[in-house]
Structures are given as structure tokens and as C-alpha cells.
């Protein structure tokens, strides 16, 4: 569901799909500092096992989904970019693929529950209130009992540290509603969730929430 005023249209991600993996390979620069370690932290937090059902929200070119596939998980990949999904299909053809925008109503083909729901570098596009709303929805309605929601994203301990980091990277910085762990943990807890947080790199962290 996009509009002419859409701040992040799917067409931009279609264009990015072919070069995305090359961009994330330059891990020393913002926004992908520590990219591989961030994805590995998601895998560790998920405690993956063969046969688990995994939903990867904003799967992109499938880098996170592929890790779960190697564990023998049943992987469902959601993204709003057709070209990103095409790249992911090449890496993990046995997965299930769903073209969907998180801003639209939940798609019928995903009307089920998953053992783990994961996402990498997606939620920072949303304001904090929307982040919390999505987390509540996913944990309450889309996870199996005992399931986990694990979100890896651009995140900073607090406003002061984000501002210091922004100055350190100069022209590479682009302002978006990034996670601030101090306020985000308060908001998530206030919504009845039980978050845990891991700062993985200077600009990225992982949030883990149980169903």
C-alpha cells in the first residue's frame, strides 16, 4: 500500500535489489556496520531447530532467511519488493514467498502462527508507536505459544549516543525514526511485552520478545 508521498516506496527497493548484497558487504560503514554479527545474533536468540516455522518480515535478498534454512527450518519470506524476493528465491528456492507491505492488512496466505518471527533492518521506518503496535500484534496473534519475535535493526542506546554516532559518520547519516533502546524498552514493557535488548554494533541492536 503506497502513495505518491510514500517515504519508502517499494520501487526504490526494487532498484536496490541487485546491488544490495554488495552494499551490506561493506560492514564497516553506516548503516550496515556489523551486519553479519547482527544476523548471527538473531539466529542465536532464536535457538533454531529443524522443523521450526519461521516468518522473515522484510526478507530482502534472503540473507537472514537463508541462515534459518540451513538449520532445516520451514521458512516464510515476506517483502514488499518483487525484485528483492526474486533475489531471495535464488538463494532459498524451497522457502515460501509472500509479496506484502506491512502497512497493509495482514495477508490471507500468512493467516497462521509461527514458532519464530524475525525481521532485519525494517522496523526503523516506523515511529515508536507503530513499532510497539506491530510488536503487540505479532506476538499476540502470529506466534505459537512459547514463540519469539526477534527484531534486528538500526538502534542506539539513547538519543545522546545516536547524535554522537551521527556526527561521527558525517554525510553517510540519514535521519529516520531509529530505535532508541531506553525509550523503546519502556514503551514495549508498558504495552505488556517482555523485551530483551542486545546492542550488537555502534548502530544496530536486537530486540527479543516472547509470546
How does this model look, in words?
The chain is an alpha/beta fold and 211 residues long. Helices cover 37% and strands 24% of the residues. The chain has a single domain, classed as Vaccinia Virus protein VP39 (Rossmann fold), CATH 3.40.50.150. It is built from 8 helices and 8 strands, in the order H-H-H-E-H-E-H-E-E-H-E-H-E-H-E-E. Helix 3 crosses helix 4. The longest helix has 14 residues.
Describe, in short, the structure shown.
The protein has eight helices and eight strands. By secondary structure, it is of the alpha/beta class.
Protein topology:
Elements: H1 10-16, H2 20-25, H3 35-46, E1 53-57, H4 63-70, E2 74-79, H5 82-91, E3 96-99, E4 114-120, H6 128-141, E5 143-156, H7 159-169, E6 179-180, H8 181-190, E7 195-199, E8 204-210
Amino acid at each position: 500500500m503506497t502513495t505518491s508521498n510514500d517515504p519508502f516506496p517499494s520501487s526504490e527497493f526494487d532498484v536496490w535489489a541487485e546491488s544490495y548484497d554488495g552494499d551490506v558487504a561493506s560492514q564497516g560503514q553506516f548503516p550496515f556496520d556489523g551486519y553479519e554479527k547482527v544476523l548471527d545474533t538473531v539466529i542465536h536468540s532464536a535457538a533454531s531447530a529443524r522443523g521450526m516455522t519461521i516468518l522473515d518480515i522484510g526478507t530482502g535478498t534472503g540473507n537472514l532467511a537463508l541462515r534459518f534454512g540451513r538449520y532445516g527450518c520451514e521458512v516464510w519470506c515476506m517483502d514488499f519488493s518483487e525484485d528483492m524476493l526474486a533475489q531471495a528465491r535464488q538463494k532459498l528456492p524451497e522457502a515460501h514467498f509472500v509479496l506484502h507491505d506491512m502497512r497493509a492488512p495482514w495477508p490471507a496466505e500468512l493467516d497462521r502462527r509461527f514458532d519464530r518471527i524475525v525481521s532485519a533492518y525494517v522496523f526503523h521506518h516506523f515511529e515508536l508507536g507503530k513499532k510497539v503496535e506491530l510488536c503487540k500484534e505479532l506476538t499476540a496473534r502470529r506466534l505459537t505459544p512459547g514463540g519469539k519475535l526477534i527484531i534486528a535493526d538500526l538502534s542506539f542506546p539513547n538519543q545522546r549516543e545516536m547524535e554522537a554516532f551521527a556526527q561521527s559518520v558525517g554525510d553517510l547519516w540519514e535521519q529516520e525514526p531509529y530505535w532508541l533502546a531506553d525509550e523503546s524498552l519502556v514503551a514495549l514493557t508498558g504495552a505488556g511485552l517482555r523485551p530483551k535488548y542486545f546492542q550488537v554494533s555502534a548502530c544496530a541492536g536486537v530486540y527479543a520478545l516472547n509470546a
